[in-house]
Design goal:
This protein has a domain at about 5-190 and about 225-255 and about 295-315: NAD(P)-binding Rossmann-like Domain (Rossmann fold). Helix content is about 45%, strand content about 15%. It has helices at about 10-25, 60-70, 85-90, 95-115, 120-125, 160-175, 200-210, 230-240, 260-270, 300-310, 315-330, 330-335, 340-354, and strands spanning about 5, 30, 50-55, 75-80, 125-135, 180-185, 190, 215, 220-225, 245-250, 255, 285. The chain has a seven-stranded parallel beta sheet, sandwiched between helices. It has a three-stranded mixed beta sheet with strand order 7-9-11.
């Protein structure tokens, strides 16, 4: 028994692989193209582990994907591989179209060909798990009910539009060809080893360097925050118990404004690493808002709780404290991932909003 994970060197994918091997002991094949956010250091502890095999490659390479499926005969594909940063999607939407849409199509076609040739028992057990986002649902008003699995898809950025398109392809391959798929839509993840273009690791890294803490617009955009460990647990449960063709929303029950998140980090740093120059909140800087910035996301995760028995174990307070402690203890990791390409991107993005 083996699973194939795409994008397993990224933030969520690497956590999933580490937790999967710890919890199940089932072998994993990790297919990752190692773009800027892919980091094999996230999985360094698996070096020499007979249950883990890394393959550097692109999900758009049909010949490679076909070969991996034949050689390893996985019982499931867990599809994380995606371009995922909204700002990058605004500047270079073509990358998101290629990876998130064309890449998912290529993977689905390879999976369909492989699955159709399986013996009956293996064929009925096979699953294709599409790991998606709450951003496909669009934006909520302050008083609107949270997104449920029945919410309309109304994506507002090139990133969310590309993920929505991928989700629609996954659904179509189930209804048209019978491919046994599962789709999860999660809220904003946070935790150790997250690439520092995202809000929480960016704020932590800048605060430690006494750089400005940039907040888009008025800082009142609301997100539901989900600890990556809780997300990975939910994915394992969906893969084990989820019904083919179904969607499951995964949320952390932790709605907060971006400004409140940043203040929370500053308060924890004041406690853990007080600085002679004064409170970290003095570094907060408001910058030009992102184009088409969705005002609020919120997840209704009652279905996965009711049908599969999953609930998040971390509050934002407990998860954020653990996350911040990890970053404070792993400053070398943060320095290592800040490559020249990342620095150039950060400078261009900051200058555009100055």
């Amino acid at each position: 028994m083996t699973i194939l994970v795409t994008g397993g060197a990224g933030f969520i994918g690497s956590h999933f692989i580490l937790d999967w091997l710890l919890e199940t002991g089932e072998p994993v094949i990790n297919l990752d193209a190692l773009t800027y956010a892919g980091n094999l250091e996230n999985l360094a502890v698996l070096q020499g582990n007979a249950l883990y095999d890394f393959v550097c490659g692109d999900i758009q390479d049909r010949r490679l994907v076909d070969r991996l499926l034949v050689e390893h005969a996985p019982r499931a594909i867990v599809h994380f591989a995606a371009e995922s940063h909204v700002d990058r999607s605004i500047n270079r939407p073509q990358d998101f179209i290629q990876t998130n849409i064309v890449g998912t199509y290529t993977l689905l076609e390879a999976a369909r060909s492989y699955w159709s040739k399986l013996q009956y028992g293996a064929r009925s057990r096979f699953r294709f798990l599409q790991v998606s986002t709450d951003e496909v649902y669009g934006s909520l008003g302050a008083a609107d009910p949270a997104f449920s699995e029945a919410s309309l898809y109304q994506p507002n950025s090139p990133y969310s539009a590309s993920k929505a398109a991928a989700d629609h392809l996954v659904r179509a391959w189930h209804h048209t060809y019978g491919l046994p798929v599962l789709t999860t839509n999660c809220s904003n993840n946070y935790g150790p080893r997250q690439f520092p273009e995202k809000l929480i690791p960016l704020i932590i890294a800048n605060a430690m360097d006494r750089k400005p803490l940039p907040i888009y617009g008025d800082g009142m955009n609301v997100r539901d925050w989900l600890h990556v460990g809780d997300h990975c647990m939910a994915l394992r449960i969906v893969l084990e118990r989820g019904i083919a063709g179904q969607m499951y929303n995964i949320g952390g029950n932790s709605e907060m404004t971006n400004l409140a998140v940043v203040h929370n980090i500053c308060e924890l740093l004041d406690e853990m690493r007080p600085h002679a120059d004064g409170p970290y909140s003095n570094l907060i800087t408001f910058v030009q808002d992102r184009a088409g910035h969705d005002r609020r996301y919120a997840i209704d995760a009652r279905k996965i709780g009711r049908d599969l028995g999953w609930q998040p174990t971390e509050t934002f307070s407990s998860g954020m404290r653990k996350t911040l402690l990890w970053y404070l203890d792993h400053q070398e990791w943060v320095s290592d991932v800040k490559t020249g390409a990342y620095q150039q991107w950060t400078i261009r993005n900051s200058e555009a909003r100055a």
